[in-house]
Amino acid sequence: MAGLPWKKTKEKIIEELLLANYNQYFRLACSYVHNDDDAADIVQNGAYKAIKNSGTLKEEAYAATWLYRIMLNEIFSFLKQRKTESIDFIPEEPKTEDTYEDVDLKRALEELPEEERLIVELKYFEDMKLEEIAAVMDLNVNTIKSRLYRSIRKLKLRLEEDWQYS
Amino acid sequence: MSSREERWKEMKQEYQSHSMSERQVEEMKKRMEQAKRENRKERKQHTGRKAAAAAAAAAVIISVLPNTSANVAYAMSRVPILSKWVEVVTFRDYKYEDDRNTADINVPELVPQISTEKGTDTADENAESVDTQTKENIQKSAEEINAEIQAITDRLIQEFEENLKNQEGYQSMQVSSEVIAATEKYFTLKLICYQAAGSGAEWDYFYTIDLATGERLNLADLFTDGSDYVTAISDNIKEQMKEQMAADENKIYWLDSDMPEWDFKEITDETGFYLNEKGEVVISFNEGDVAPMYMGCVEFTIPNEALADIRK
């Protein structure tokens, strides 16, 4: 049988990434929209668009970053829409049980400017490399580093600052 | 570790445990399947348009069988140097490249190489009339097939240029051609198209010429009148699909699948085919036609024994 060697198409690569990482995108969306249902909608829409446009992925090596960008775009357009729709919208507060000392750290994280908080979460909660974060957010790696440093100081955390020397 | 760092660790765990519900995940999967289906449909529409263009012309490239026995012997005894009868040249090479758009569309053209010698034996009327007739046919057929190919590539270029206006999208388009399976009996030109604008896909067109008659070869022409070559070929393909899937779990064909409406039923008049050096029928399917896209374009060689009864 003269079958041609089959290759994983872009659609397949995107599909596999989505199925492996959907919770990462979900958490990303949650940190912006503070609402599980809305965040799930965003991921579902993003997944649809990613598959639909999988052919436009230029290089397969960048598929993960490409996917993150699509999800970010979904988040931003959702936020834009929400802004114009309702002035009374009050985002749900994430439910936690805090003791007095702990409120500080969690509150401190939430009070960071959105971009800084995102960088902290991607670095320390999603364990992403700085270069990946830079690609996702379309910023210079040095910008990421300096914002990260600033945020950690604000949070008054002594964390391994290995990234400083990377 | 201070309580602050401990609390940070806790926050990380809290963060990571936040996940989508089963129902939300199911919904996401449904949307993904929907996108895949829509992509498949778009690709089938491409194929549909191809069929319409193909139906417009019985495209043919003809070689003139010389009318002396010596020359016939020459033609039959050697793998023909096809440039003797037909040359494939580049008619047009459309190239474009910027940040988001690339195109490399190489449009082939068939140029008949017609001898200007007249028939040598005036008493051999048949030979002479064939000669004149085939000479006319050559010209006509060359024009038809070239027009067909150009219609296809013109349309692709037009689509490409339309899409350039889109400020956000990416696209790429490649067209190339290959002379494949050239024997003393048949000549086949394969036109290979790859387009990515939304979903990415490859699809191929095959133009086969019967060098004995000079006419374009349709699949039906190979089989005795009224014989059910469609079933014979399709059944053999299904057998091969089953064998392959049994031997290799990474291979999937749309056969006995969860979505019966997608299952391969039988070949059609538009299904691409050519004849290989052994004179065997090779059936070619475009991406997504009979298997998931990742399988690419797939081909099946139908062994001669399977069709021996009905081959002309």
Explain what you see.
The complex is a heterodimer of chains A (166) and B (312). Chain A has 166 residues and is an all-alpha fold. Chain A has helices at 10-33, 36-52, 63-85, 100-111, 114-125, 130-137, 141-155. Chain A has two domains: 8-91, Rna Polymerase Sigma Factor, Chain: A; 99-159, Arc Repressor Mutant, subunit A (Orthogonal Bundle). Chain A has seven helices and no strands. In chain A, helix 2 (36-52) crosses helix 3 (63-85). The longest helix of chain A has 24 residues, at 10-33. In chain B, helix 4 links the parallel strand 2 and strand 3 (171-180). At the A-B interface, helix 1, helix 2, helix 4 and helix 5 of A face helix 1, helix 2, strand 4, strand 5 and strand 8 of B.
SSE layout and pairings?
The complex is a heterodimer of chains A (166) and B (312).
Chain A lengths: L9 H24 L2 H17 L10 H23 L14 H12 L2 H12 L4 H8 L3 H15 L11
Chain B lengths: L2 H15 L4 H35 L12 H9 L8 E12 L3 E12 L12 H40 L6 E10 L5 E12 L1 E12 L18 H19 L24 E4 L5 E5 L12 E5 L1 H4 L5
Parallel strand pairs in B: 2-3
Antiparallel strand pairs in B: 1-2, 3-4, 4-5, 6-7, 7-8
Label this structure with key terms:
heterodimer; A: 166 residues; mainly alpha; Rna Polymerase Sigma Factor, Chain: A; Arc Repressor Mutant, subunit A; 7 helices; globular; disordered N terminus; B: 312 residues; alpha+beta; Heat Shock Protein 90; Actin, Chain A, domain 4; 2 domains; three-stranded antiparallel β-sheet; 6 helices; 8 strands; 23% strand; flat
Largest sheet of chain B: 5 strands, mixed
| CATH top level assignment of the largest domain in chain B | Alpha Beta
Helix content of chain B: 25-40%
Query: What oligomeric assembly is this protein in?
Result: heterodimer
Largest sheet of chain A: none
Task: Say which CATH homologous superfamily of the largest domain in chain B is assigned.
Answer: Fervidobacterium nodosum Rt17-B1 like
What average pLDDT do the residues of chain B reach? 75
The percent range for strand residues of chain A is: under 5%
* Strand segment count of chain B: 8
Q: Structural class given helices, strands, pairing of chain A?
A: mainly alpha
Low-confidence stretches of chain A: 1-7, 97-101
Spell out the helices and strands of chain B N to C: HHHEEHEEEHEEEH
Helix proportion of chain A: 55-70%
**CATH arch. level architecture of the largest domain in chain A:** Orthogonal Bundle
